[in-house]
Amino acid sequence: MVRLLDALDRARADSGEDFHFALQLERFFESVENDEELSDETRLHLDEMDGRYLLPDLVDKLEDWYSDSTFQSARDALDQFEDAITDAEDRGWVNVASQYQLRRIRLKAGLQGHDVTDELEEALEFIESCHTDDLASLTTSIIEVTTDNIDDVPKPHRDRWIDLIKIITDVNRTENRFNRHREYIRLLHEFKQACDRDTSDVETALVDSYRREADIVGRKSQLQKADILQSGVAECAEYLSDERKRNWKQEALQARRTGTETELHELDPDDLDVDGIEGESLQQAVAEEMEHNTQVYVDWFKQVKQSSGSSSYAFYCLALSSSLFPDPNKIRLSTEEFVISQLVSRQIISPEAHTLSIDPSDSESIPNNYAHYAAGKMSSLGNALYRLIKEGHLTLSNIIHIFRIGDTLSPDTEAFLTDALLELHEDNHRKALFLFVPHLEATIVDTLQSIGRPAYTIIDEGTQQQLLGGLFIDGRDLFGRHYAIYLRYRYTSREGMNLRNRLSHGQLRYRNANYLNTVLTLFDILKCLITLNSADYLNYFGIPQWTLSPPTQYAQETDLSLFTDLNMQIIGYGTSTDGHTLLVIRENGHEDHTELFFDRGRIRRYLIDGTRLTRDEIRDEIDQLRDDHPHIPDSIDYTWLDQDDLILHTIKDAIDDQTTVPADTPSGDTIIEHAKVRGIDESTTRTAFRLLEERGDITTREIDGETVVPTDEYLQIFEHATRVTGIGETLAWHVADHFDSEQAFFDADQEAFQAVPGIGPHRADRLATDCTSPPAVVEE
Residues in domain DUF4209 (predicted)? Predict the structure, then answer.
């Protein structure tokens, strides 16, 4: 709701910015229509808006209708929608007026015994008068709802709707807005089909749209041309002759081969599986390999969308797929870099020929030939996303929907990203890229703050926000190690593309501000949102049932955090003896069944009736499943987490792993997150804390409102500090936080103590005097 108020103020200041308010209204109305409980904060902001704007009264009526089915409230809401439309038109808010038109039609269409003939006619007249200023997604939504209610459209009005859609289609064709152009072609096709009209002219227009765009775009990018032609073949297959399809496919392959040579300088053909091929045939093989991988991504996305009925869900599954990014360990091993790097000093030069550094030290260094492996994967992913957008499988509404699920972005960040999405939708890739890249950092910082994670670093004067590179360096726990290295390579590292810094300092080549970098940056923004705020996305979508993951993902490391849930209990897991399959066994006591998850490139879920089954009973059920599902491996090595001792041992290991220095204090929340990786949910972890403390294995303390698990040395430093005059508990905790070991505490001088936050010179003198050695042990 904060964003709604912010967008309202923006629209009042500049009527041309009203599309932000219209999009926020869409989000708000969907919540009301779905009878979702509005938060207390939202209620407060509605009260603040009362008297300033008409929305609160309208919301009251809509809530009465959608929650209690009070018919009079629905009629009153229809009247208020009419007032809202008039108000928006008077203010010059074309997009807001369209949003109100759309909601009024949907409301009345849902009232039994009522038609929307008058409302559709008014919407028709409205769009006829101002379609050039309207947000495309709102106009298309009104056309879609008109098609859904075609029986309420008189025949003369149907002709007017067809003429209107044709006019808008022609305008977008003239201005080379091909995404919009094809959106309206598809709508016209659906509308004509609903009216039982001939659609051959529309199908011809769709084919011509792809042909025209490919010819125009091909002057700048052959790779982009290849993707457009492939999308044309995919969408227009039934409208193209066999000969034309073959010609387009061949032309696309040739364009990709040319583009690979001239546009992908990071891609080394030697890194692809094309051994024994040289010269021109090598480039052909590289192009075919890239096209194959792109097609795999596209087909997979379409399959998930068709199975789930949601493009947003398909993107969510794609974002959580682990095979999209290179494995730095495999790269190092394959090139024996761990030996060579010790013998050769490296001089790093940017793509613009600027020498950046020699022998930079890096805690998580990027392998020397990482770029070669990353380029092929990135290009295939970017091409696939571009094609999905072109073919209408991944729309502006789908992307905005994903942004909104987490609800973590500030109003300004969301506004900038919305502008960038609109530019991308209009194929203004350079404008979109220059908006996306700086707001990748804003997205990460906003999300970290929203979920209570620090986005700052400690300096001598206090704290400051971490730079993007610092977030990535420290981000293996946030993003996962492989993805954190990829983000550094792509945006901030001098050893990589360094896209963010090159763009900021004006060192980015003009040709590199292209469609590929733009859609990949959008993907990274969305993936960071989903990764950092996983709880909200898991709550909304659930565990992804399809992912693109390497089959040997679990051979080296088992991460069960994806399967943990507060309401479920993981009782065991197993890996196949060949290491290719992960099995997770989870009990759902609320619904009295046991869940089985098998991950072998994609996650499959099966249910067994009952809970608290014996291990033999579970094995028998798995054997029965195997008869019908051959992907379930014959031999599985099980680890059972329903043993208290094993759980306690696992939690103690997680605590020890987070204790990097003798006097450390891992927080309870940190231990909970690391326990999830090992398949132990939050409730069980907290119970284990209590049992471990009762047994005397650990000690927990509440420090500044946060539960921590301090080591013995940390507690001893605290105890020593409290014995000094003028040092209370709060300052003593600060002292304990400052020193890595008890010995370092006793060795500290006045200057070292004064560096502790809150310790002035006088207290530092007393600490240095009274804490120079451990207290003597008195023998009896």
Answer: 476-515
**Residue 232 maps to a domain:** no
Q: Are residues 613 and 746 in the same domain?
A: no
Q: Please tell me whether residue 576 adopts helix, strand or coil conformation.
A: strand
Spell out where 330-424 has E strands.
347-349, 355-358
> How do strand 347-349 and strand 706-708 relate by DSSP bridges?
unpaired
Tally of domains within the chain: 5
Q: Which of 167, 199, 220 is the last residue of a domain?
A: 220
User: Token pair for residue 555?
Assistant: 């051979």
How far apart (Å, rounded) are the C-alpha atoms in residues 57 and 77? 9
CA angle (469 as vertex; 467, 475 as ends), nearest 5: 105
Q: What is the mean pLDDT of residues 273-291?
A: 57
Please indicate, yes or no, if residue 170 is contained in any of the structural domains: yes
Closest CA to 271 of 347, 351, 330, 349: 330
Cα–Cα distance for residue pair 376/384, rounded to 1 Å: 12
Q: Which amino acid is at 235?
A: E
Tens-digit pLDDT profile for residues 609-619: 888 888 888 88
CB atoms within 10 A of CB 271: 18
User: Each residue of 475-526: pLDDT tens digit?
Assistant: 666 787 788 888 888 888 877 888 888 888 888 888 788 888 999 999 999 9
Same domain for 649 and 638, yes or no, is no
Distance CA 260, CA 223 (A): 7
- Is there a domain that residue 266 lies in? no
The verdict on pTM exceeding 0.85 is: no
For residue 374, which phi and psi values (nearest 5 degrees)?
Answer: -70, -35
Whether residues 175 and 113 fall in one domain: yes
Q: What are phi and psi of 605, to 5 degrees?
A: -120, 135
Which pair of tokens denotes residue 245?
């399809």
> Last residue of some domain: 202, 220, 238?
220
Please choose, from the candidates 437, 455, 457, the residue with its C-alpha nearest in 3D space to the C-alpha of residue 501.
437
Instruction: State whether 214 and 96 are in the same domain.
Output: yes
* 660 and 718 belong to one structural domain: no
Q: Are strands 569-576 and 456-459 parallel, antiparallel or unpaired?
A: unpaired
Mean pLDDT of 26-39: 81
Q: Which residue has the tokens 């006097």?
A: 663
- Cα–Cα distance for residue pair 769/750, rounded to 1 Å: 8
Per-residue pLDDT tens over the stretch 199-245: 999 999 999 999 999 999 998 889 889 989 999 999 998 999 999 99
Q: How many whole angstroms separate alpha carbon 334 and alpha carbon 586? A: 37
**Over the range 447-482, which residues count as b (16 or more CB within 10 Å of their CB) and which as e?**
bbebeeeebeeeeeeeeeebebbebbbbbeebbeeb
Closest CA to 133 of 24, 5, 17: 17
Least confident residue range of 137-151, 369-383, 555-569, 703-717: 555-569
Question: Based on the domain organization, do 141 and 164 belong to the same domain?
Answer: yes
687, 717: one domain: no
Judged against a pLDDT cut of 90, whether residue 677 lies above it is answered with: no
Highest mean pLDDT among 127-136, 210-219, 260-269, 615-624: 210-219
- What is the reported pLDDT for 348? 37
Which amino acid does the sequence have at 229?
L
- Flag whether 547 is in a domain: no
| Contact yes or no for 272/249 (Cβ under 8 A) | no
Query: Tokens at residue 83, please?
Result: 């007032």
Partners of residue 706 on adjacent β-strands: 703
Same domain, 593 and 704: no
C-alpha 93/C-alpha 122 separation (Å) is: 16
Q: What is the pLDDT of residues 435-479, one digit of tens each?
A: 999 999 889 888 888 877 766 554 445 444 556 666 776 666 678
Contact between 98 and 134 under an 8 Å Cβ cutoff? The reply is: yes
Q: Are 411 and 2 in contact (CB under 8 A)?
A: yes
Helix/strand/coil for 9: helix
pLDDT at position 69 is: 84
CATH of the domain at 737: 1.10.150.20
**For a pLDDT cut of 90, what percent of the chain falls above it?**
24
